[in-house]
Design a protein that fits this description.
The complex is a heterodimer of chains A (about 425) and B (about 525).
Chain A lengths: L2 E5 L9 H25 L10 E5 H4 L13 E5 L10 E3 L22 E5 L2 H8 L8 H6 L4 E10 L9 H14 L5 H17 L2 H20 L10 E9 L3 E9 L6 H21 L2 E9 L3 E4 L1 H6 L8 H15 L6 E8 L8 H15 L2 E7 L5 H4 L7 H12 L3 E6 L2 H11 L2 H5 L1
Parallel strand pairs in A: 8-9, 8-11, 11-12, 12-13
Antiparallel strand pairs in A: 2-5, 6-7, 9-10
Chain B lengths: L19 H5 L10 H18 L7 E6 L1 H9 L10 H15 L8 E4 L4 E6 L4 H21 L1 H6 L5 H19 L1 H13 L16 H17 L18 H14 L6 H8 L5 H22 L1 H21 L5 H14 L15 H17 L3 H6 L9 H11 L2 H8 L2 H7 L2 E5 L5 E6 L6 H12 L1 H4 L2 E7 L7 E6 L8 H15 L3 E6 L5 E7 L4
Parallel strand pairs in B: 1-3, 7-8
Antiparallel strand pairs in B: 2-3, 4-5, 6-7, 8-9
Helix pairs in contact in B: 2-5, 2-13, 3-4, 5-13, 7-8, 7-9, 7-12, 8-12, 8-22, 9-12, 11-12, 13-14, 13-15, 15-17, 18-20
The chains are: A alpha/beta (about 425), B alpha/beta (about 525).
Chain lengths: ~425, ~525
């Protein structure tokens, strides 16, 4: 009888990868629902960290014909009888569970109610942003790739000293010295020693002979350099174009009295999504919070969302502030600039002109994408559903949006709108169009 | 099997006077294994298994795998090759979470009923555990696979791996041609019927799996040229419905359908009016795989009992021969005790009868009856009591029985007393459970019969049959669940499976629950989706 031992430990891993992907695809609708729900219900800071999804059994359940755990006449055979004799009775547990041995109801544990599935962060966010693509993003990556980074690309015979590759250089040097039979220092020492001995012994013939040898060796050693320029090797670097990996996101919000907490909360969710999305696309994302009433100010996140101001509304002040900050800190050559503005649509009529001018001349030409969302109270929904009845700001922006495709605008009425609106704003089809 | 208890195997503590010769007899001295010790230990175990216990095994192939690969293997029902399906991804995800969180350990081994018999050993195992696993799987299970009548009749150890390869390729080709969703639609439905996709009794001549592959191709060709004759009975005009000729044709058609039919997958594969040929072949693949696993379900307790008994005998023998050290033996015993642990019914850990525990206890009991019988044993099992040949008696039992018949035949009064088995009756109309029988003279028979019944597929699995097809009209498929002791089906699952049946059948399906007095307890209906 034969026997064979096979070591399979180094076989390729991830054999079940296909199965896992199929499972995720199947459960995706459910997972997506969970994701949308999480944006609606969860505390804002949690969204990015959530990884465990409870998938209800509906779609991924594998039903089988099996006996119910209740009803009918059943016999159980149990081990470990202590004191019972034939005819004894035991009370049935509450809820009619099928006795100590009653597991007929769920053969091999298939009766699960929901399935807890751990998505990796990437899998989670991929699903969150599936089908989403920032407009012109590919274009930005390819065409506007102004940044370069160095990447190792083998060795070269020239370069700057700090890129000298010692190992390579010394290897070449050694090979050359061996092949050209360069005298070793030890050889010279030996001759010198013999020379000393011969001198003290007074053997002049030998001294002359040795002196000749010594000069030959020294000359040869001099001719064959220890390190020759041909030995030198430098690490070679190539400049590869690097997609601009940093982005700055401007959050602009009207915090005047007319913005209710509810509306600010809606806005906040939108900002949060945009931020999440940008961190996914760019290695480094800066966020600048600018709030405004009749004057604008850069603030920290906490102040931005929490504090409430009184006063009128002059939108151009915020745009002016953004323009100033861009000029100061975020050169469009180095940064991808995104902006999201949330407002209830109020603006002083006299501010229309300056706002539109700022957008046209300064902001939009520098910005990858400017999203304007108008947050409205649910009660106002009916009133504002139609295009006829629009706010001042909406009307002005609409005009500009006709000229600049990178200005997008949407209205948001309830929390449930956030995700679909976000989806619409950034959908691929829009980018294609 | 449960998680290994990591007892470091100490080198066999040689006293100062211990002769060097004795030390060299040890097969291994540390808990780390390597391929040398593995080979040496395998040879020693093989020697005991074949020459002393007289086991009859397929050639062995031992494969070392990592824990991740073990998880992989789990998710595809332990088979090395399997077609792709989301359910395996689901199983993998679940097992992985359980494993990473430490809720469950991985099996020490997986063994495949194939020729050669493939046993997977996990690399994390200590050398002692590898020895245990080799004895358990490569000889215990292996012998059982090769000799038990159910495996001989229903499985094709030689062809299974080739067949699984064929299945994998076939499914992949279908996915390429018809799309993953279309393939999943069939597989999802067929998987739901795997438990009803087996022939419980050897009615038909069974082709080998190698023939299956060839026939698959031939069948496809044939089907393309012919037409499902069954449906010719469908009347052309409404007037033809009541004619005697039509009725006769319906009768003949019923005969051809071979009703009633308990193998639902077989029936659907053969007679579904809507399935396309490649879909039919997918159903057939699922059915063949279900049939391959069926004997394992029927003999779980015996098979584990056999393997556990074999590893126990072999490890003890090696220890007696001085080939396993004291520390290693302690590690083995601790692990063995875990495996055969049977919590009592009122223990919080109780979750049914542990097949390893009962199986092992019954095998040891047979050994006892064969070698040191009491008068009671002589009365109960005269054919083996005192025969002296324990292995002979065991091998006969392993070859000729399955779990239910094995319990009915061999569960001795002695063992029932030892396990203190009792029978608890649960009647829906009574507020209490009733102790019907215990381990005493009056109760032995009833306890034994009741325990045997819990292993009886006719009682354990719902008895569902295709009872009729409406040949004259709607083509509705009629199924009957014959209730045993009035135990109903779990409704939501039953409805879900019925929906799958309707999908495969292509027309409406109806399931009636009928109790022993022919009263209909429930009726579920489903229509095909899409």
């Amino acid at each position: 009888m034969g026997m064979n031992i096979v070591d399979r430990r180094l076989n390729p891993k991830g054999k079940s990868h296909t199965n896992r992907q199929r499972f995720i695809r199947l459960a995706r609708e459910t997972i997506k629902e969970a994701v949308v729900r999480s944006i609606k219900d969860r505390a804002l800071g949690d969204v990015d960290s959530k990884e465990v999804v409870n998938i209800p059994r509906a779609r991924i359940h594998e039903p089988r014909f099996h006996h119910s755990s209740q009803g009918g006449i059943r016999d159980h055979v149990l081990p470990g009888n202590k004191e019972y004799v034939q005819g004894d009775t035991l009370p049935k547990p509450q809820g009619g569970e099928g006795g100590g041995g009653g597991r007929e109801g769920s053969p091999d544990g298939e009766g699960e109610d929901s399935f807890q599935f751990t998505l990796s962060r990437d899998e989670y966010l991929n699903i969150l942003f599936e089908e989403l693509e920032l407009p012109d993003l590919a274009k930005t990556f390819l065409k506007d790739a102004t940044a370069f980074k160095s990447a190792r690309a083998g060795f070269s015979t020239s370069g700057s000293p700090n890129n000298l590759n010692l190992v390579r250089t010394m290897r070449n040097s050694l090979a050359r010295r061996i092949s050209l039979a360069r005298p070793k220092p030890r050889e010279l020492e030996e001759i010198e020693a013999q020379l000393e001995a011969a001198k003290s012994a007074g053997d002049r013939d030998l001294v002359a002979q040795l002196e000749l040898r010594r000069d030959q060796v020294i000359r040869r050693a001099k001719r064959i350099a220890y390190i020759d320029p041909v030995d030198l090797r430098y690490n070679r670097f190539e400049r590869v174009p690097k997609p601009n990996a940093q982005a700055v996101m401007f959050c602009l919000m009207d915090v005047s009295g007319s913005m209710s907490e509810y509306m600010k909360d809606l806005a906040k969710r939108f900002f949060l999504l945009l931020h999440l999305f940008l961190t996914r696309k760019y290695e480094h994302v800066d966020v600048v919070f600018i709030r405004h009433t009749s004057e604008a100010k850069e603030v920290d996140e906490e102040t931005f969302f929490r504090s409430r101001e009184t006063g009128g509304t002059v939108v151009s002040t915020a745009l002016e502030e953004m323009k100033r900050i861009v000029a100061e800190r975020y050169s469009p050559d180095e940064w991808n600039i995104y902006a999201a503005q949330a407002s209830d649509g109020d603006n002083y009529p006299s501010d229309s002109e300056p706002s539109m001018r700022l957008l046209r001349d300064d902001i939009l030409p520098q910005t990858q994408y400017f999203a304007y969302i108008e947050v409205l109270d649910e009660r106002e929904m009916g009133m504002f559903r139609s295009e006829m009845n629009v706010s001042t700001l909406w009307r002005d922006y609409k005009v500009v949006a006709g000229e600049f495709p990178n200005l997008a605008m949407k209205r948001v009425f309830s929390k449930a709108d956030i995700f679909p609106v976000f989806h619409q704003l950034f959908s691929k089809t829009r980018a294609v169009a | 099997m449960s998680e290994a208890t990591a007892v470091a195997a100490s080198p066999a503590a040689p006293g100062p006077a211990a002769p060097a010769v004795q030390k060299s007899k040890l097969l291994f001295e540390t808990s780390e294994w390597n391929f040398d010790t593995l080979k040496r230990t395998f040879d020693a175990i093989e020697d005991v298994a074949l020459n002393e216990l007289g086991l009859d095994c397929y050639p062995n192939q031992i494969e070392l795998i990592s824990s991740e690969q073990m998880l992989d293997a789990y998710s595809s029902i332990g088979m090395p090759v399997f077609y792709s399906h989301w359910s395996f991804g689901k199983r993998f995800a679940r097992d992985e979470v359980m494993y990473r969180k430490g809720y469950v350990g991985l099996a020490y081994e997986i063994v495949i009923n194939s020729d050669p018999c493939i046993a997977y050993l996990m690399e994390e195992n200590t050398m002692t555990m590898q020895a245990l696993v080799i004895a358990h799987a490569a000889f215990g299970h292996n012998h059982f696979f090769k000799n038990n009548y159910l495996f001989k009749e229903w499985t094709d150890a030689e062809g299974i791996l080739d067949y699984l390869n064929f299945a994998k390729t076939y499914v992949a080709k279908c996915e390429e041609k018809h799309g993953v969703a279309a393939v999943e639609r069939v597989l999802d439905a067929a998987h739901a019927l795997m438990d009803q996709g087996v022939n419980r009794y050897g009615r038909r001549a069974r082709p080998s799996l190698a023939d299956e592959r060839k026939r698959s191709e031939a069948r496809r060709k044939h089907k393309e040229e012919t037409y499902n004759d069954l449906w010719r009975t469908l009347p052309r005009g409404a007037g033809a419905l009541n004619s005697p000729a039509a009725a006769k044709k319906v009768d003949q058609a019923h005969d051809r359908l071979g009703l009633p039919e308990e193998n639902l997958l077989y029936f659907i594969e053969k007679f579904s009016p809507k399935l396309r040929d490649w879909e039919r072949e997918l159903v057939r693949i699922v059915r063949n795989i279900a049939q391959y696993f069926y004997p394992q379900k029927m003999t779980k307790m015996m098979n584990e009992g056999c393997a556990t008994y074999v590893h126990y005998r072999i490890m003890n023998r090696l220890y007696d021969q001085g080939r396993i050290g004291e520390g290693s033996m302690l590690e083995f015993l601790a692990s063995h005790a875990n495996v055969v642990f049977q919590p009592e019914f009122d223990d919080r850990r109780y979750s049914g009868i542990n097949p390893y525990a009962l199986g092992f206890a019954m095998m040891q009991d047979i050994e006892r009856i064969a070698t040191e019988p009491t008068d009671e044993d002589r009365q109960y099992l005269p054919q083996i009591a005192g025969c002296g040949d324990a292995m002979g008696a065991l091998k006969q039992a392993w070859a000729e029985f399955r779990d239910d018949s094995f319990v009915a035949q061999y569960l001795s009064p002695h063992l029932m007393r030892k396990l203190r088995l009792f029978r608890l009756g649960d009647r829906p109309d009574e507020p209490h459970y009733r102790v019907d029988a215990i381990h005493d003279e009056r109760g032995y028979d009833r306890v034994r019969r009741a325990l045997a019944r819990t292993y009886d597929p006719g009682v354990r699995d719902p008895n569902i049959q295709v009872s009729d097809v409406d040949l004259m009209g709607s083509r509705k498929l009629l199924l009957t669940h014959h209730l045993n002791n009035d135990v109903p089906l779990a409704e939501s699952d039953a409805r879900a499976v019925l929906a799958y049946i309707a999908d495969l059948w292509g027309y409406d399906a109806e399931l009636k629950g009928v109790s022993a007095d022919d009263s209909v307890k429930y009726t579920y209906e489903a229509s095909p989706r899409s």
